[in-house]
Design a protein that fits this description.
Elements lengths: L28 H33 L2 H29 L10 H31 L8 H26 L5 H32 L3 H33 L7 H13 L6 E10 L2 E9 L6 H19 L3 E6 L17
Parallel strand pairs: 2-3
Antiparallel strand pairs: 1-2
Helix pairs in contact: 1-2, 1-4, 2-3, 2-5, 2-6, 3-5, 3-6, 4-5, 5-6, 7-8
Length: 338
């Protein structure tokens, strides 16, 4: 998963002590990713029989709301395949421990979900608006039971995703999009159940015109919600898929901050900047004097973050020494080179 900005640079002042003897180790980022993968895998395989059931129902029910569910299931099958692949790559490569995370895989999966969801929602809006203006009859009976099966599955999946997200220390684009997708599906399923129940009552009472308009009205509400959420995810992840340098003015600000701290190092090497979505990163190579410790290097990085924060806002700074540095401060002896 993508590491939060404050965790991109691991601590160099020393590792925290391990758990006491006999105590259970705290869950790691890898455990969280594997838990997410298991939940997503269950969601994918359990979706296949339910999708087949909804396909049969949708072909015969004449319900606009069921069309929403059918299209959502098609989008789910396509996107979940890629999401499972992305998460599998994270696990196989231990990428949850990689400083840059696996953001591009995750951002692309979220972007793909939004790209497929938006046209599907527009299609549903078109047919639902037509059905609202000239309502058609909707068949009931086993339709409600079939949708209840789907709604129950999605509710279980959504609860499991919330539990996984509560344990993860950072927000993942894949988890965000997948949870949003599941939430939309769950709400639309329960909305269909309520709409069909209300419509059935109205039709039974003789108000057929009003009863048949409930179904497309629910479909329109869910489609609009899908459009709004899909648009937000599309724009956010489109920006995250682009890697650009900081603007020239901000790059000059970085160089001025380095010049102000010239006494802490001997020479400046490569300076690279990157803007990816909301993430702003500066990588600096510095030549230090012999005897410099890792703690000294981290102090320079911390000072640069403090200097640049008020000027450039949220910004992560990483300093890479071009010379060997000592792993600890040494008093009266030789230190071990890092």
């Amino acid at each position: 998963m993508s590491a939060p900005a404050g965790q991109l640079t691991p601590s160099v002042a020393g590792a925290p002590p391990g758990p006491p003897a006999g105590a259970s180790p705290a869950p790691s980022a890898g455990d969280d990713v594997r838990a997410l993968y298991r939940v997503m895998r269950w969601g994918f395989w359990s979706n296949i029989p339910v999708a087949g059931l909804l396909l049969v129902v949708g072909a015969s029910a004449g319900s606009s709301a069921i069309v929403v569910m059918m299209l959502q299931n098609v989008v789910d099958v396509i996107v979940q395949l890629f999401e499972l692949y992305a998460i599998r790559q994270v696990i196989a490569r231990d990428a949850e421990a990689f400083p840059y995370g696996a953001g591009k895989l995750e951002n692309f999966a979220a972007f793909l979900w939004a790209v497929l969801t938006i046209p599907a929602a527009l299609y549903v809006l078109a047919i639902a608006a037509d059905d609202l203006w000239t309502p058609d009859s909707v068949q009931y009976g086993v339709t409600i039971l079939a949708i209840l099966v789907s709604a129950a599955r999605l509710t279980v999946l959504y609860v499991a995703l919330r539990k996984v997200r509560s344990r993860m220390g950072a927000s993942s684009p894949v988890l965000t999009a997948y949870q949003a997708d599941t939430k939309i599906d769950m709400l639309s399923n329960w909305g269909v159940v309520l709409s069909l129940g209300a419509a059935f009552g109205l039709v039974a009472a003789g108000a057929e015109s009003a009863g048949y308009r409930v179904d497309p009205a629910v479909a329109i509400v869910v489609a609009v919600y899908s459009l709004v959420l899909g648009g937000r995810i599309l724009l956010g992840n489109f920006r995250a898929l682009m890697d650009l340098p900081l603007p020239v003015v901000e790059q000059l600000t970085v160089m001025r901050a380095l010049a102000e701290r010239h006494a802490a190092f001997e020479h400046i090497g490569a300076v690279e900047t990157r803007v990816s979505g909301d993430e702003r990163l500066v990588d600096v190579e510095l030549q230090f004097a012999p005897g410099t410790t890792i703690a000294d290097v981290e102090e320079v990085a911390r000072g640069l973050r403090e200097d640049l924060g008020p000027r450039l806002g949220d910004l992560e700074v990483r300093v890479a020494p071009r010379t060997n540095v000592l792993s600890v401060d040494v008093v009266g002896g030789d230190g071990e080179g890092a």
